[in-house]
Hints:
By secondary structure, this protein is mainly alpha-helical. Helices cover 60% and strands 12% of the residues.
Amino acid sequence: MPSRQDPVHQSRCDVEATLSVIGGKWKLMLVWFLRDGPRRFSECRRRFPEISQKVLTQQLRELEGDGVVHREVYREVPPRVDYSLTPFGRSLEPVVAALDAWGRFHGEYLLQLRRDRARAA
Length: 121
């Protein structure tokens, strides 16, 4: 049972509780990447080369700890570890799809705003 110190119990609203699980620079991107099926750690590293190995490990462990990601270790040489979304993690698919659609719809506008801001600086 979670403690009262857990961010989900300390949240003031459901959005804050949700962000305590999926917040973080890379967590939603990892959920997005894992939506198509299990991936090895090395695949995640190749897909997101800008994430350090330490941060990737930390983000995956946190997602695993919150029940979003399942980590499967195979007894092989060399060792193989796959990461996949749990059913709980799959419940985030509509959230990720909505964010993806929002980004596609507003992407050009955001890009233009950033260009304008850079020119003004």
